[in-house]
Amino acid sequence: AQPVLAVVGRPNVGKSTLVNRILGRREAVVQDVPGVTRDRVAYDAYWSGRRFTLVDTGGWEPDATGLQAAVATQAELAMQTADAVLLVVDATIGATATDEAVARVLRRSKKPVLLAANKVDDDRLLADTAALWTLGLGEPRPVSALHGRSSGDLLDAIIAAL
Ligand code: GDP
Ligand code: MG
């Protein structure tokens, strides 16, 4: 079976947009409304001669259980079922309490974890990217899922981790 990469993170950070960018086509549902990805959805992805399965997560609502707990649970599940995990953070917002809670879960992972600093649409946001080192998940990798900026570099890192 091909290796599995799970994409986790808060609603609206751009997970589905990034999944579409990686796929090179629009299959994941992108919405301005948080929590629109109904389920965990798996796609066949391909880069640099390697095939892998890409799992887009979401579907939680900030309900009674709390957003933070729901996202942490997704991260836990991703850690157990995927071969590598990609945490997506919105660099224009910076690390929120929820991002920190998820990072805390992922730091226990025995599998590779990559950190994508999304929405880095231009160089002025590189300082905000560097600020994400505080999450303790290694190098934050800047990317603009919307414009495609640096997505090739991120994919190279993903392939190296899988
Ligand atoms: P998800 O909830 O994490 O799956 O996030 P979505 O992929 O649905 O995106 C949420 C919003 O962020 C949408 O309005 C996207 O167009 C926007 N977005 C995603 N990636 C980028 C990016 O790289 N730059 C900017 N400026 N906006 C982005
Ligand atoms: Mg989504």
UniProtKB/TrEMBL annotation:
Residue sites binding GTP 1 per the record: 9-16, 56-60, 118-121
Segments forming a coiled coil: none
EngA-type G domain: residues covered: 3-162
UniProt subunit comment: Associates with the 50S ribosomal subunit.
Function comment: GTPase that plays an essential role in the late steps of ribosome biogenesis.
Family from the record: Belongs to the TRAFAC class TrmE-Era-EngA-EngB-Septin-like GTPase superfamily. EngA (Der) GTPase family.
Record protein name field: GTPase Der
Organism: Amycolatopsis ultiminotia
Gene name of the record: der
Shown stretch of the complete protein: 61 to 222 of 508
